[in-house]
Amino acid sequence: MEPSLQASYAGLTLSSPIVIGSSGLTNNVDKIKEFEKVGAGAVVLKSLFEEQIWMDTQSMLEYNNSAEATSYLQSYVQANNLKQYTDLISRSKSECRIPVIASINCYHADSWVSFAREIEKAGADALEVNIFKLATNPHEELGHYERLHVSILKRVKRETRLPIIIKMGQRFSNIVSQVTQLKANEAAGVVLFNRLYTPDIDIDTMQITSGSVFSSSEELGNTLRWVGVVSGQVPNFSIAASTGVHGVTDPIKLILAGASAVEVCSAVYQQGPEVVTRMNDAMREWMKKKGYRSISSFRGALNFQNIKDQSLYERVQFMKYFSNHQ
After folding, report:
1. pLDDT at 94
2. Cα angle at 187 between 117 and 99, to 5 degrees?
């Protein structure tokens, strides 16, 4: 009997724990159907960006910035963007069987939260809320960013009965405490982590340029650490691992650390949709070898609470452990 890859994530039942992360690859129904065919358990649609709506409005206001024009154009742009997005949700749900998770990228607890109601009506199975604003204001009160996550979660939950998943960045003073607060306020799960755009500098042109768009395998360790710690310290809560997932055995490692699901994005861009099939096949073969029949039977087996030496997750100092390395 073949091992089952069925997984439970944020109240959803997935045929595989491999989820296609939000990107330009998930903005097209034909591509979503292809991801279903290669064995993805779910897809997260390309985000509806609060920032993009604002920028589109501003570009239209270049020659007329009256209050009346601002209000009209903002309403028009929001409605147009939302209509396109809900159409994508509806078509995806009508043509695919796997769960479709909508995504909003935002940095304010503002009027956009009403979008959640329309996203639910369109048939989305859940909503991933990607909250990020780089903290650069020295006058902003310490802790504002953390409280913003809880505030947005509460606002969105008032608008919809959909499971709300919070996609978190890595820049928190206490990630475990933040996840605990989100769980207490009835988030359905979290994604660890949102990978940020990084800048670079061209020393010849003296210009700020874009850094690497894709993640690398070297970034997996940080994701692995925090999935292991959070799943151990915040039990019975869904975690999707994201960032640094490239190797076909990486999802196995992350599930052992406690992930309920594993989002892949850069690997799909670089290796093609078939990488999902290879990840599923590698997981089945490993489960056969180890005698596991289900994902739940090994999920979290090596998380923070289930290992004897918890310092293996806590070690952060280079010199203590590698000072003799030549």
Report:
1. 98
2. 60
